[in-house]
Amino acid sequence: MTQEEKKAIIDKCVEEGVKAQIRDDVCSRSTLVGLKSYFDWIPDEMIKASASLCGGTGSASGSCGAYCCGLLAVGLKYNSTIEEELQDDEAFGKTAMHFSMYRDKFIAEMGSIMCPKVHEKLFGRSYNLLDDAEAQEFLTLPGHVEKCAETVATATRLAAEMLLEDE
User: Fold this and answer.
1) Residues 6+ apart with CB under 8 A from 28
2) What does the pLDDT profile of the chain (167 residues) look like in tens digits?
3) How many domains does the structure of the chain reveal?
4) pTM value?
5) What's the CA gap between 157 and 7, in Å, rounded?
6) 67-97 b/e with 16+ CB inside 10 Å = b?
């Protein structure tokens, strides 16, 4: 596969992820929707379950949902099974190499994997999504959906780049 073909795939994944985020405002699921537009081995059940990770994992201001779902896709491709780990002491280390690379690339671009810190980067301040008033303020910010789509674009692009590395 040429670099141009890879770029076209990545661009399509990002476009579909951003489109889903603008439509639905569910960063976690939107990341996987974007990735599934090319990587059809991502199960629909995982996309369904991923909605629970939005807003910093369960709207709890924890780890960024878009980041988490990019990480899930990377893990689905590269993580070892328990059986593989029981037979090979180095199997988990190979798994960890992939998720650590994804994490480090995301932090390099977004400053953190934590939803409130990503908020600071995008909106100039963090929001506690466990506080009803702050959550409502966050959800009604002008440009909220579009700014969160930037995070979806980053998570989707980084995951797609990694998923295409060996193709």
Assistant:
1) 50, 51, 52, 53, 54, 65, 66, 68, 69
2) 899 999 999 999 999 999 999 999 999 999 999 999 999 999 999 999 999 999 888 888 889 999 999 999 999 999 999 999 999 989 888 888 899 999 999 999 999 999 999 999 999 999 998 899 999 999 999 999 999 999 999 999 999 999 999 88
3) 1
4) 0.94
5) 10
6) bbbbbbbbebebbbeeeebeeeeebeeebee
* C-alpha to C-alpha distances, 89 to 77, 81, 84, 86, 94, nearest whole angstrom: 19, 12, 9, 7, 10
CB proximity list for 91: less than 8 A, separation 6 or greater: 80, 84, 85
Residue 115 φ then ψ, to 5°:
-50, -50
The token pair at 42 is 């991502």
* 58 DSSP 8-state letter: T
Rounded to whole angstroms, the Cα distance separating 140 from 35 reads 27
Structure-block tokens of residue 123:
């909106």
Query: 32, 69 in Cβ contact below 8 A?
Result: yes
**Residue position matching structure tokens 């996309």:** 47
Q: Which two tokens stand for residue 82?
A: 């328990």
Range of the domain at 56: 3-163
